[in-house]
């Protein structure tokens, strides 16, 4: 296989010559959802609207200038041109207004400068309406409690046949509106009828609903918006129920009550009174003072109420009375109910304590606080406030502007500490961060501390230049830039980082402030990954306490090449190594893939200490024959705590130099902490592989009939799912006693069922009648005889099916699986069979492939099976045990159920929890030295029960009932051994 790759590469080079291939440039990727716009049925003369989501799936930005439709019935409202950066999304409204009956087909072209075309197929069907309804809103205005306000809407039957009149009221306040249909529910040809709609407020405040009128079969109904406001003596109090939602313990949330006099007479105002306050968790923050105690006509006042939970769970319902009355009336004022829940916030500010350590007088140190949004919606971070309690100065390293943090992302707040001259004591302060999520307002606090000290001028050693030599395009070399304290006094390092303006091919993580003792060192790891041929330059900088040499600079250089000599791996990272464990070894290869010999003039190991050693398999200088591989052994044995780095350089006879970076970190007491974020709004792609052999009819029906049980966990967690079905059949059935539906005669060969697109092949939360579609899609027939489920799943999730809308190997149109698998979604595969799998590859092949689809992240893969059990005595109707399916499911931590399950709903509910439920398995990055010393915390709270360590997968696995809630942080800390 490697030889084939080499031949293909040589041919590619001969075709392209010296021109760099376009695949090496950053590319944009035009992606739309849905991939085809299908308006379905739409009434003639009426406008139907759909949203088209445009996504940039590449790295390079592209610009969208406008949209052009190939048919006049489809239009796009004008919009300002916009730029989509890599991963960006934007929604565009598309309108369809048919002029005549019949199907409409065309395309919508988005005018872009993307690398791929912006064409989107458009489908629709004009249907003649049998009922016409004007699209006007009915506004009932302010209606006093106990009264009824009427409005009218006219409906008309424009056809020459009798048509039914079907009305319905929908919406949160539909119970406050009524609509009269008249004496008959049929409209005569050409008849117009006036329908009366009434609003009788049952509650104070605004009310809204919709009057829906069926206009034609298969069409969306005509919607007449209804709105009105219930008032008491022309008094408006909104809202009448304050729901603070979930608020973290120790935080507070505030909301407002608005009181408006909408009448012509003044009202008496006496403020507000908190009547019911269980647990003392509610508080009136502000009450306006009204001149003369009178609320004049048209006047508006605002009352703010806060919720401060003191315990987890729902708080008791509170009540506040608004003291507003008609003159001379003793009736009680309107009452507003208060509800809220104490819990862990979906927004975290980390760390809770920021310690700058020791900072030299006259210098500064800057650290960052991370605001993590685990909510389902964006939050607004504002009102950043810094207070210094004692000592030096804490200041913001950025303008105190508001920041919007999208769901699932983080924002960073930089803070700078400056010691006060002559103040040796510790400095303390606090950062307050106010976060607004919807109507909830909470404040998080971070304590700050640091200490000032006077240092003597730092004596240090730092190279003036760091050269990466020649690096293959796309490969990455990591090297260490070492600053060592060569003096006899402690040295203060403020920071060490890449300078602004360095080529983007250079990256590093800033080394933050600290004190270097005499002889100690600190290392800035710089990574160089060229994306094109040619030279690259950068600059690293540091700040140390020295009156004239306090800002040393180091030049960085490297060259991207496309050559036939290489060193692999380009970076050898030994990871964390305990000093008492002895040396670790790794292997490297010097490779000559040239058509002729290569003369290696020499090899040298550059380092500031003695931690690394390299033993070549051959002496240098040496001539490497074409195709030669020289194996070298690298050895790392740390002598002290801290990061170590070295460079292994190969110098060729022509003077060119190739470099491999060596990294390692020594530790006296090694402890590892792995940190995981439990997703708050999961995306899951589910592939059912259903046996379509002759004995599976009842099982297929049971699967389809229990769709609600399968979706139970998805519904509870608002999962964004995509569900597809394929069969265990690869080749079309030769015919015989039974035919299989769907257009492939049982030979789906990995294609989603039905391949003839007679129904939606991918079910999503927006699929109409999803349960019915799923039930039909699982009736794949019973015509086949050769069950190859693992191969079917592999083919469904690989080229050419995976990313193409059409399988060009077949005659059926649009039978590819493009659009099913999402890169950022969890993948769940569920096999349903009463027979063993007869696929070609070993089970380990499929496990490796499916894991690779998800970047080897085991938390992103769930494989499950409802198959014949190993003990067939418990399942006499099964032809054989599904041992290969069971093996794959168990290897990935999935659920296995018997095909003879007596309770399909219960079995599918288990599969639902596996596919859609919160992640329960958290793979560790290292192997613990002592599993009894594993410490697990969820949102900082230690968890001692409800989980176990699984040595086979090196994971911490929670029980289903104790799985961390969506949006929480899970941390696992454990000691490292001598692995």
Word description of this protein:
Strands 20, 22, 24, 26, 27 and 28 form a six-stranded mixed sheet that branches. The chain is mainly beta and 979 residues long. It has nine helices and 67 strands. The longest helix is centred in the N-terminal third of the chain and has 15 residues, at 2-16.
Total beta-strand segments:
67
* Percentage of β-strand residues: over 45%
General form: globular
How many helices? The count is: 9
Mean pLDDT: 83
The description of the largest β-sheet is: 6 strands, mixed
Structural class: mainly beta
Low-confidence stretches: 1-24
How much helix is in the residues? under 10%
Rounded Rg: 35 Å
Q: In whole angstroms, how far apart are the ends? A: 33 Å
Keywords:
6-stranded mixed sheet, mainly beta, single chain, 9 helices, 979 residues, 5-stranded mixed sheet, disordered N terminus
């Amino acid at each position: 296989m490697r030889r084939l790759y080499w031949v293909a590469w040589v041919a590619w080079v001969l075709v392209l010559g010296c021109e760099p291939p376009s695949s090496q440039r950053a590319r944009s990727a035009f992606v739309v959802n849905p991939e085809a716009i299908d308006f379905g049925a739409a009434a003639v003369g009426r406008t139907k609207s759909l949203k088209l989501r445009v996504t940039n799936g590449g790295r390079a930005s592209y610009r969208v200038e406008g949209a052009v439709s190939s048919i006049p019935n489809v239009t796009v409202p004008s919009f300002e041109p916009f730029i989509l950066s890599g991963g960006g999304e934007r929604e565009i409204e598309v309108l369809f207004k048919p002029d005549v009956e019949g199907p409409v087909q065309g395309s919508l072209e988005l005018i872009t400068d993307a690398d791929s075309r912006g064409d989107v197929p458009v489908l629709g069907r004009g249907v003649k309406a049998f009922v016409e309804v004007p699209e006007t809103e009915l506004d009932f205005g302010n209606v006093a409690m106990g009264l009824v306000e009427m409005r009218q809407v006219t409906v008309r039957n424009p056809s020459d046949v009798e048509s039914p009149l079907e009305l319905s009221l929908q919406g949160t306040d539909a119970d406050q509106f009524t609509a009269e249909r008249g004496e008959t529910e049929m409209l005569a040809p050409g008849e117009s009828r006036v329908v009366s709609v009434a609003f009788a407020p049952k509650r104070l405040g605004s009310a809204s609903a919709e009057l829906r009128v069926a206009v034609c079969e298969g069409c969306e109904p005509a919607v007449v918006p209804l709105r009105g406001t219930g008032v008491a003596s022309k008094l408006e109090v909104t809202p009448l129920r304050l729901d603070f939602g979930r608020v973290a313990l120790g935080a507070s949330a505030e909301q407002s009550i608005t009181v408006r006099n909408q009448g012509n007479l003044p009202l008496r105002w006496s403020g507000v009174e908190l009547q019911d306050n269980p647990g003392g968790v509610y508080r009136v923050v502000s009450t306006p003072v009204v001149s003369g105690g009178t609320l004049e006509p048209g006047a508006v006042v605002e009352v703010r109420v806060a919720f401060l939970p003191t315990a987890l769970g729902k708080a008791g319902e509170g009540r506040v009375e608004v003291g507003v009355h008609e003159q001379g009336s003793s009736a009680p004022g309107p009452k507003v109910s208060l509800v809220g829940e104490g819990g862990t916030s979906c927004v975290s500010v980390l760390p809770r304590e920021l310690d700058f350590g020791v900072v030299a007088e006259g210098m500064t140190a800057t650290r960052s606080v991370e605001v993590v949004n685990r909510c389902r919606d964006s939050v607004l971070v504002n009102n950043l406030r810094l207070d210094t309690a004692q000592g030096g100065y804490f200041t913001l390293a950025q303008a105190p502007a508001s920041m919007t943090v999208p769901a699932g992302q983080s924002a960073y707040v930089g803070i700078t500490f400056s010691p006060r001259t002559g103040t040796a004591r510790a400095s303390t302060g606090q950062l307050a961060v106010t976060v607004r999520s919807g109507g909830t307002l909470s404040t998080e606090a971070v304590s700050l501390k640091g200490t000032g000290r006077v240092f003597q001028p730092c004596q240090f050693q730092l190279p003036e230049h760091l050269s990466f030599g020649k690096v293959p395009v796309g490969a990455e070399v990591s090297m260490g830039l070492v600053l060592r304290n060569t003096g006899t006094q402690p040295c203060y390092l403020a920071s060490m980082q890449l300078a602004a303006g360095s080529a983007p091919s250079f990256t590093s993580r800033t080394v933050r402030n600290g004190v270097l003792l005499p002889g100690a060192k600190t290392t800035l790891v710089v990574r160089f990954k060229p994306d094109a041929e040619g030279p690259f330059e950068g600059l690293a900088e540091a700040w140390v306490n020295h009156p004239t040499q306090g800002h040393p600079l180091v030049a960085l250089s490297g060259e991207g090449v496309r050559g036939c000599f290489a060193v692999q791996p380009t970076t050898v990272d030994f990871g964390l190594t305990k000093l008492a464990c002895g040396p670790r070894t790794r292997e490297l290869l010097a490779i000559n893939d040239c058509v002729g010999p290569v003369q290696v003039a020499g090899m040298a190991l550059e380092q500031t200490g003695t931690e690394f050693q390299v033993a070549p398999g051959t002496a240098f200088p040496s001539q490497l024959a074409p195709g030669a591989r020289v194996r070298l052994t690298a050895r790392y044995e740390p002598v002290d705590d801290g990061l170590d780095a070295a460079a292994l350089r190969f110098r060729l006879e022509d003077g060119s130099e190739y470099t491999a970076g060596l990294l390692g970190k020594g530790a006296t007491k090694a402890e590892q902490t792995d940190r995981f974020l439990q997703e708050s709004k999961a995306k899951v792609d589910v592939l059912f592989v259903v046996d379509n052999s002759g004995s599976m009819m009842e099982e297929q029906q049971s699967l389809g009939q229990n769709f609600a049980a399968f979706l139970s966990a998805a519904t509870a967690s608002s999962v964004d799912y995509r569900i597809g079905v394929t069969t265990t059949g690869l080749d079309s059935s030769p015919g015989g006693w039974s035919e299989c539906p769907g257009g492939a005669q049982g030979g789906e060969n990995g294609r989603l069922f039905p391949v003839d697109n007679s129904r939606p092949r991918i079910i999503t939360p927006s699929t109409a009648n999803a349960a019915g579609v799923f039930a039909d899609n699982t009736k794949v027939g019973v015509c086949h005889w050769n069950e190859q489920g693992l191969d079917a799943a592999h083919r469904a999730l690989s080229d050419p099916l995976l990313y193409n809308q059409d399988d060009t190997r077949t005659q059926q149109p649009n039978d590819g699986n493009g659009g099913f698998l999402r890169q950022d979604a969890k993948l769940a595969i569920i096999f349903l069979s009463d027979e063993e799998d007869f696929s070609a590859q070993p089970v380990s092949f499929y496990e490796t492939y499916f894991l690779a689809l998800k970047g080897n992240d085991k938390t992103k893969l769930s494989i499950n099976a409802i198959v014949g059990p190993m003990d067939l005595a418990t399942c006499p109707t099964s032809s054989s045990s599904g041992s290969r399916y069971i093996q794959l499911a168990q290897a990935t931590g999935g659920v296995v159920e018997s095909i003879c399950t007596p309770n399909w709903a219960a079995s599918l509910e288990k599969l639902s929890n596996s596919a859609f439920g919160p992640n329960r398995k958290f793979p560790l990055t290292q192997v613990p030295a002592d599993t009894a010393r594993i410490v697990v915390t969820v949102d900082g709270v230690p968890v001692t029960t409800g989980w176990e360590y699984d040595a086979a997968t090196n994971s911490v696995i929670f029980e289903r009932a104790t799985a961390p809630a969506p949006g929480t942080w899970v941390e696992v800390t454990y000691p490292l051994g001598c692995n």
